Amino acid sequence: MTRSRLVVLAGCAALATTALVTPAAGADATALGRVYVQANYAGSNGTWVEVCDMERDGNGVYGLFWVNGGSKPTELWDGSGSSGGCGNATYGSVQKFRVCEDVVGLDICSSEARP
């Protein structure tokens, strides 16, 4: 194989590798962690957090965020419900988080995740 073909093949391999690790257009490159309860979710990139109620079932949705090594979580609700928009805030340093659906009797919560 000639030297020019090797250079072209090496360039194609580098381009293919880049395409595999680069997020698709419109993807949120900062969304490092997300957990779900059915269609509802909470996410964090380590400082910014979001909680979204995606179901029209009358149940509220909130996230629990352990911030700056605290022993108790900070609670954030999606105040608009499923009507649009999400609850979000910026904290110093999120260590772990989960999402919960406020159901009469017993809330349903996801497992904990890290940003």
UniProtKB/TrEMBL annotation:
Record's keyword annotation contains Signal: yes
Keywords per UniProt: Signal
Signal peptide: 1-27
Protein name as catalogued: Uncharacterized protein
Species of provenance: Saccharothrix violaceirubra
